[in-house]
Amino acid sequence: MSRLVVVSNRVPDPAKGPPAGGLAVALNSALEKMGGVWMGWTGKSSGVKEPGPLQFVERGNITFALTDLSRRDLAEYYTGFANSVLWPLCHYRLDLTEYARKDMAGYFRVNRLFAERLRPLIQPDDIIWIHDYHLIPMASELRRLGVGNRIGFFMHIPWPSPDVFFTLPVHEAIIDNLTAYDLLGFQTEHDVENFALALKRDGIGRDMGDGWMAAYGRRFQAKAFPIGIDVAEFASTAKEAVRSKAVKRTAVSFAGRDLIIGVDRLDYSKGLTHRIDGFERFLIANPAWRGRTTLLQVTPKSRSEVQGYSDMQRQVAEHAGRVNGAMGTLDWTPIRYINQSVGRNTLAGLYRIARVGLVTPLRDGMNLVAKEFVAAQNPADPGVLVLSRFAGAARELDAAVLVNPYDVEAIGNAIARALSMPLEARVERYTAMMARIEQNDISKWSADFLGMLQPEEQRTTEPVPA
Ligand code: GDG
């Protein structure tokens, strides 16, 4: 059997033992099964003057290969091109993209550095799985170094419509680099369609059907692999967690008021100001609910070094402060807004005691919070998920209360509907959503992707016809 080589911008700190949750667990368990290498950046956020040699850590049959990044590399590749160009572009925020040539050059340079450092670790039968928008050029850099192995790429964030994508001055180079992969994975069919449309409109390639595409004289497969969570594990964590001190104390502090919860990295894609305004609309239109419900918004800071984030951080704080000032009373604060991260178990417990989960990103590749909220519910008395139509998760979770996240009145109405939904309807929606996320959990996601990435002679299923 092939070994697996995973490359991601960040690698979970191997010194902290196996990861506790999320994507890292899935990759870790695939690596444990197949044996192999996990390469990426150490995550030292200030960068170093000169990157030292690769740092190796062995854990079981996984070799972690960690690289430092210089301050300049970090500024151009990570803060610059990845997070000030590709991230806003793919989330439809052209107003925030900063097309600086030097960041673009830094992006390609760091991808070359990653490839050069990884090259000596690759064995002939390895299959290689590269993650996310930071590392698009890695396959072509590896090919340049003579790597003929199967290489797959998974895009965790949306692929935008061609009109948006073509504003990127180097869009041809990005597509050219993607054609060096054997398999491209996207979150939804919609992303795959957008990608195929870009090939067609630019006249550089085409969708050949059956998941095959061609561009720049190369053929590759492209397919949707909607990412999931470990549903059974998350459900049991949530069930346990409601008995914990932290969750009990929080529940008591809400004094019997119905809890509405939002959990998001502090990111402009998550629709936080619209959400807060929507909550305000709800309170204005439904005065009977004033004093009877609280929105708990858990929002750990992220990417504070990127321009655009500090403005947005100020705006979100202002909106929350304004609503609290206008609507709050002596003994009731409508919004409890915190910029700290909460432990994973506590988070699971909070989802479970909440009556409503508000997940209203303006654009999101998938959104795992939506799936976690569903998994955490008490099947006998489940809360209601209010979900943005523009989250990838809405494709599977169509039994949620779906909203247009730009429409604050619609958010307000959805909150009212969710809070007053009868038990029978809640159970029906929960059951439908649970069935979907259980069918397509995180182990299925990695097994499906890796199954397709295997060389044909090792596949257990029928190969896709050429
Ligand atoms: C990208 C794509 C795609 C959040 N706050 C706390 C906390 N979290 C955890 C959540 C969840 C994760 O972080 C966030 O995942 P999302 O999927 O919601 O969003 P992104 O971070 O933007 O992820 C996204 C994902 O990649 C995977 O492909 O779904 O579309 O943008 O697991 O629970 N965890 C803890 N404390 C917090 O305060 N412990």
TrEMBL record:
It catalyses: D-glucose 6-phosphate + UDP-alpha-D-glucose = alpha,alpha-trehalose 6-phosphate + UDP + H(+). Homotetramer. Pathway: Glycan biosynthesis; trehalose biosynthesis. GO terms for molecular function: alpha,alpha-trehalose-phosphate synthase (UDP-forming) activity. NCBIfam families: trehalose_OtsA. Its EC number is 2.4.1.15. Probably involved in the osmoprotection via the biosynthesis of trehalose. Catalyzes the transfer of glucose from UDP-alpha-D-glucose (UDP-Glc) to D-glucose 6-phosphate (Glc-6-P) to form trehalose-6-phosphate. Acts with retention of the anomeric configuration of the UDP-sugar donor. Belongs to the glycosyltransferase 20 family. Keywords: Glycosyltransferase, Transferase. This is Trehalose-6-phosphate synthase. It comes from Paracoccus niistensis. The keyword Zinc does not apply. The lineage of its organism: Bacteria, Pseudomonadati, Pseudomonadota, Alphaproteobacteria, Rhodobacterales. Transmembrane segments: none annotated.
